[in-house]
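assembly run, all chains below
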Amino acid sequence: MTDAISDEFERALSALCTDARLRAIEGGADATELWGEIDALGFTDALVSAEQGGVGLTLADAFPLLVAAGQAGLNHPFGETMVARALLAQAGWQSDSGCIALAKASVAEGGAIACSQVPGAALATYVLAEAGDDWLLLPVATATRTPGAFRPHASASLRWDSAAQAVQRFVRTGAGAEAICNAVHAAAMAGALARVLALSVAYASDRRQFGKAIGQFQAVQQELAVLAEDAVSAAIGARMGCTAALLPDPLHAATAKLRACEAAARGTATAHAVHGAIGITEEHVLGVFTNRLHEWRMTASTEGRCAQLLGEALLDAGDLSLADFARTRLTPALLASEH
Amino acid sequence: MRWGEVGAGRGNTRDVSRGLNPVLDAYRPRAKNYATQPAPGTTPRAGFHLPFPTGATLNPVFPALSLAAIPPEDEALRAPVRAFLQDYLGDMPPDLRARSWLGFDADFSRALARQGWIGLTLPKEYGGAGRSSFARFVLIEELLAVGAPVTAHWIADRQSAPLVLRFGTEAQRQMLVPKIVRGEVFVAIGMSEPDTGSDLASVRTRAVRNDKGWLLNGRKIWTTNAHRSHYMVALVRTSGAPEDRHKGLSQVLIDLSLPGIHVRPIQDMAGDAHFCEVLFEDVQLPPDALIGEEGDGWKQVTAELAFERSGPERVYSSIVLAQTWLDEFRASGSRHPTAVAIAGRMAGRLAVLRSMSLAVANKLDKGERPDLEASLVKDLGTEFEQRVPGWIAEALDATGATPSPALMRTLAYVTQLSPSYSLRGGTRQILRGIIARGLGLR
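ok done. output:
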């Protein structure tokens, strides 16, 4: 999963996303400076074509960056910004350095546009919202905002009076917000689970009770082994979900998100069990990651919705067997660049 | 490389010639490198990749399993195998096919051999097809998906032949491997004993050198197919005492027709008798019964277990049950949301597990030893296998459907035997211990 690019990015993130800084931003501190530093690294436009000032990576190639951002705990919707910038560049939008959240919108009868519980929206300049058959780039500043349930200072539910407030509007071709969010959130969750595993193993190795490290007790070892299984399977699932040129296949993305949700449910519980009381303090950084995982689990598509989506697709697939469906519809063919 | 110097200019006015970032500029074409590189200041652990330096005393990691693709020439094996199985197995009922790789049919094994589908990865000079691990993956997937009765040749093909090829003498290889490939010789594994389960190093069956070779005394149990195999590969003590544990163990090839061998099949809860207790009373083995070096038994059995643990059969044991239910659910025309979600959950989990299993096959093909990754995939895979009967029962409850007698028998069988999925080939707790060691906790 690693290569030269993600190594560089990981090193940079490690320096920028200190535990104290992550916690401060989740607690309401200003996040614009951090975003400026992240954006200045140059990775945010990696999916934008070279002709338009980017690097022209595929989503598959950029996958390690998405994982790295999740692993670092970067507060902003990084993966969403990467995909949004690529779509907007194709639509001719002149990019600024703004952070962009991404969500499906509901359109009310009177024309009001609403996006509910959007991860990282309070830290973003824009939301790229799927409304009907269009994408709307809407400024966060002009929205009526309600704090997010899990991350009140970082996430938000937003409402605009009308689509006219959009600064850019273009027709949606291809996968929509749900598929994009499934893929990028699964990747970020894989990163977060890796971090949660690392924190838990480190804690179990440091914390001593009954004369030895708690990680030397078989009960703890067995639980952490399961956490490792969950982290690895989430990473593989996320990798499958992101195997695309730009827009993910909706079924691959749902497969990825489903695994990530199942893994996160069990993994967060294990991590907190191992950390004991200190794990649920604001002071310890574990909560930043588990909270993030909980929020992503509750963001479309949720676990249940993914299962339903996959089940409907299976039933719509004629008499394709379960094994063949999993093998041919839920498993991507690797892109040429990966051979 | 100073990537912080990109500057504040954005949009189309950016100096593209300078590039965003020297690392990204050097990225085209895609540098294909899935080799694990340790992050600076960290120590690489065999088989693991170190992601994020946490600054803590330990850098826990997880294995780098990367997606693999089946080469077209190996994928091409799927259609002829599937056609053969459709012809041969015809109306074999689902509850029998649900026995999966414990189903016994010597004629089937020989028919498969005539197709050249036993010993697919074994070298041509011993009768094998010399194909890749991917070819074998495709073949095994197809066999498991329909629940083909492969058990007669399964163990020999999967691990005994590779073991003898790796550690045996040329004479042993010539004697055994071609016959295995032809489906003429079936082999059982002699590891567990009445007092030896997970603690394999505690075996007490003993082979003592005498003027005619080795004199064997002891007992093996849970020996799959001992009553219908020609040979057993057994882990025995050849020197020292049980307290020496891993030292003084060897592997021997036992002709099961020799005098002094008593095999008693043991019936399982579902009424099948696939495993046995085997008693050895002064069994005289020839001198060339020893496989490999005397005293290398532990090293050899560890390698053998890696073969045993790394295949896709640790994911597909319940697939016949799932498919049988799906067929009836589809035929009912129902779209009950609980059942639909269960179908989706099974499909999604299966896809990810399969990709993980394929990644392990990829490592095997490259000559690596993915023992850790195989343990991880086996534990997750058997967890999935064991959840399937509960999901099917839940789906049936929710829809209020009347399942066919065949589906009910299949559900009953898998429900009863599913605890064995996480016992055979290494128990869950042992595998998790292996993973914990890989995390640096032991």
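The longest helix of chain A spans residues 177-206.

DSSP finds eleven helices and ten strands in chain A.

not gonna interpret more than that til we talk
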